[in-house]
Amino acid sequence: MDFSVIVEYFPRLMQGTWVSLQLILLSVVLGGVFALPIALARISKNPLISGLPFAYIFFFRGTPLLVQIFLVYYGASQFEVVRESFLWPILKEPFWCAIIAFTLNTSAYTAEIFRGAIQAIPVGEVEACKVVGMTKVQMYRRILLPRAFGIVLPAYGNEIILMLKGSALASTITILDLTGMARTIIARTYTPIEIFLAAGAIYLIISMVVIAIFKQVEKRQNRYLGPNPVKLPDDV
Amino acid sequence: MIDLSGFGNQLLLGAVITVELALASLAVGLVLGLLGASAKLSSVKSLQWIANGYTTIIRGIPELLTVLIIYFGATSVLMAIGGLFGYEEYIEIGPFAAGVTALGLTFGAYATEVFRGALQSIPKGQNEAAVALGMGRIRTFYRIILPQVWRMALPGLGNLFLVLLKDTALVSVVGLDDIMRKANIAVSSTKEPFLFYSAAAVLYLGLTIVSMSVVYFLEKRANRGIKRA
Hints:
The complex is a heterodimer.
Chain A: H1 4-8, H2 10-43, H3 47-62, H4 65-75, H5 80-84, H6 88-91, H7 94-120, H8 123-131, H9 136-166, H10 178-189, H11 192-221
Helix pairs in contact in A: 2-3, 2-7, 2-10, 3-7, 4-7, 7-9, 8-9, 9-11, 10-11
Chain B: H1 8-41, H2 45-60, H3 63-84, H4 95-120, H5 124-132, H6 137-167, H7 179-190, H8 193-222
Helix pairs in contact in B: 1-2, 1-4, 1-7, 1-8, 2-4, 3-4, 4-6, 5-6, 6-8, 7-8
């Protein structure tokens, strides 16, 4: 074991970390934006509306992320049409391919989380909205979505951690993210254990920061429950 | 019919490897999960620390990194251990063994939490009743506790298995001949990436559907003693 390589290559690992963070942030934000309409369409009772989101979610949750990345990065270039279209400058860049694949993937998972949260809201609250004469849009904007946001937080935090771990797959399409950088360094120094452990420690630190942030947000969002939520017996 | 240029057979062979890897990792992971949950619930502080460290570390680093660490790192570690005993030959572990170890460790870490929740949900009275009947600790565990834990843990374990199934694709990165690597080989010789990665996706979807229905039947069986409202 020779831990001086970690010190020597620390700046390179930091470069990789920055790329990883960009990947995670962009795809989580974009995925979150896409997830909401998908979730709302998925809830619809009309099978014509809920059918497509169902298939979308099923495909992206049922296949490995690695397959999805390869489909976007290698698969799209199989078609002449794609290579000559205006999208090609984006689709030939591994970075943007990774963003596309991650966004599609995380939006499917996040949509399911949103759906679960919206459906977890007690029926009574929906009925109360209707009784006071809210329109459907008002009901969602004022009651259901803010409520769902509080319910969603723990699961959403987990999804971001999963995305953080999924981002390591970017290294398979030549991106020098944290894992990719670690593999490049190892190819030069042949010190797999030291460098991989260092990369693992950095991932661990990032996920702990994410967990800490979510704890704070959760505390704020659910502050109406009070500092020590008292659990009343069911029959009160 | 879609023309897979003769690689269809190869993809199916890859699917067999994928299933073998998933089942072997499942077995390792279930054992680790039960051990981890018992350690977390034990009154021995050092066992709790070990189990907490294990789940925190494994759940916080990417599965791909775990696979790479085990595959490339295990060789160095095993050679160092071998060196202590005067064994100087080159030791190498194959991609399958590395995959089972890495995915088993991952599954075990998540399963620890599932089993812990299930173990805690069993009323104390069950244990006391078994003791009152004169059962020993081991017999109580496998006759009374385990069947109930199984029922509680099954939905969580089913989800984890679906995750595990998809994570098996990562082991192709270190050269295991699973669906993913067979697809890569087919792509490099036919130059039809979209076709073969779609075929791989369909195979994974098929495996997902099969696992979901198996879990559904297991859940139905485990719940046969419970009245549903």
